[in-house]
Write a structure and sequence with these properties.
The chain is of the alpha+beta class. It contains 11 helices and 5 strands. It has a 5-stranded mixed β-sheet with strand order 1-3-2-4-5.
Length: 247
């Protein structure tokens, strides 16, 4: 009887090319995800953040941007939108006079709150964030003046981001740092909280003014505002109180 023959040994299949292919696919996938994340980070936040509610003490939370003495007897809150023409008029004709005659004399503390009306002003949220990126470098009020002063220049642009960076240079900001701030989502939460805080106080238009917590139903002239401040403070400022104490 012939000896049984052993079947020829089948060649072992190498899995190395398969695993190499899997590795390449994985690396490509990770690269795509990373690229998408970079593009996401580079896209400026232009809308409120969902779900954020206004705090009870907004200024203490750093939502309001203030000028003037913390111990001033009267505090003015302005809720405003950088793309609002009425706010631009207030900024041009009222804010400088208020600063010179009331803020700088210690009679008034002025606090600016963002209230971007995104339903009608598509760049308002981005402009509010630009103001806060300028505030990060200690130049909010000069940047505030430029944004309002040049409102007609940027309001109708498709994307005013480059224009806002140009304005940063005009007011002496580190343009690179400002641009990195603006082309991100930084301060989106703060602007949203400021908006929600205004809504909780019944703000529904801009500019809206509060004086020592009381909402003014109409925008006052400067003379009317000065009379209200005089009435609220009893005609005194912290400097007057200090002088009286030293007598």
């Amino acid at each position: 009887m012939a000896a049984p023959t052993t079947p020829p040994e089948q060649p072992t299949r190498s899995w190395t090319p398969f695993y190499v292919l899997l590795g390449v696919i994985a690396l490509l996938g990770l690269g795509l995800i990373a690229a998408q994340l970079v593009r996401h980070r580079a896209r400026p936040a232009t809308e409120p953040v969902p779900g954020l509610q206004g705090p009870a003490a907004a200024e203490a939370e750093g939502l309001g941007i203030a000028m003037g003495r913390p111990d001033a007897p009267v505090v003015l809150y302005e809720f405003a939108d950088f793309q609002c023409p009425g706010c631009a008029a207030w900024a041009a004709f009222m804010t400088p006079v208020i600063k010179e005659r009331l803020v700088d004399t210690g009679r008034l503390r002025y606090v600016y709150f963002d209230f971007p009306l995104v339903s009608i002003h598509r760049h308002a949220f981005l402009a509010a964030r630009a103001g806060r990126c300028a505030h990060e470098q200690g130049r909010f009020w000069p940047y505030h003046d430029v944004l309002y002063g040049r409102q007609r220049e940027w309001a109708d642009e498709r994307d005013p981001t480059d224009r806002f960076v140009e304005y940063a240079r005009l007011v002496g900001l580190d343009a690179g740092g400002f641009e990195r701030c603006l082309r991100s989502d930084r301060y989106a939460a703060e602007v949203t909280r400021s908006l929600r805080f205004g809504e909780s106080l019944g703000v529904d238009r801009t500019p809206t003014i509060f004086l020592n917590g009381r909402k003014l139903t109409d925008l006052p002239t400067y003379s009317q505002l000065e009379a209200l401040v005089r009435e609220a403070s009893g005609g005194r400022s912290p400097a007057d109180t200090g002088a009286a104490a030293r007598r």
